[in-house]
């Protein structure tokens, strides 16, 4: 699909799409909502979510599950339903842009599945069953039945102009994962080059830099050298900040560079710094929802914000289940703009 037509003409259904995105943006949970949820037990949280955007999924699953399990399953299903709804309601070529962006979930699913097949993941298989983009629930179930080699051989995204299989030159797990990242990076680069919106390209570059930034800091923590760190980046674009972090003497110096860049306030722990970076990312995404009303940026901004809301709720309900964290600690771990 060619995206260059976005600038020449605004289809009549774009304003409708923007109105739907704005309505969904208004229903995202804010700090006051989280404060209320923090006072509740798991079944009360499920009841509260049922009164809002998660009603459909809670109602569908409520007869078979309750408490933490009900909320977790409802969150997964809601994320899947929301992303599928966005793809279906968007006119072309916006739907194609959404599909490319959401492919990151397919890549993540494939990685988890391959790690599970190799026995290097302790996660329950049901956690991988979140059909968001390319794969349906049935297709994911079929993949689960295949062996590792067959899954690698069957990796394919027919709707993409990037040949993912062409990037895979080894079946070694780490190399397959790296190949998938490089193929997806190539597809994102292609998308950014073709969408005639400077704001969209900037937003996507910020998203990629955020991902690379977190990767660089985590590897710095374990003493990786610059050359090795760069091999783990999701694309070849290397900003000045990333270069400085890779060349920093140690993690402390790298964290200071992030603080000086204005992305985070003074912090002593990497986990706190990552949390501040995620909050900065959420604020940027929410701003983008209204920054370019009749374009792709508003949709991708909402997708990022929705994804963070799901992560927040999943973390909150798990913390409530274990009871190991007090309310203040749980709130501190929530990403709130």
TrEMBL record:
This is Archaeal/vacuolar-type H -ATPase subunit C. It comes from the Archaea. It comes from Candidatus Nanohalococcus occultus. Pfam families: vATP-synt_AC39. Keywords: Ion transport, Transport. Gene3D superfamilies: ATP synthase (C/AC39) subunit, domain 3, V-type ATP synthase subunit C domain. PANTHER family: V-TYPE ATP SYNTHASE SUBUNIT C. Belongs to the V-ATPase V0D/AC39 subunit family.
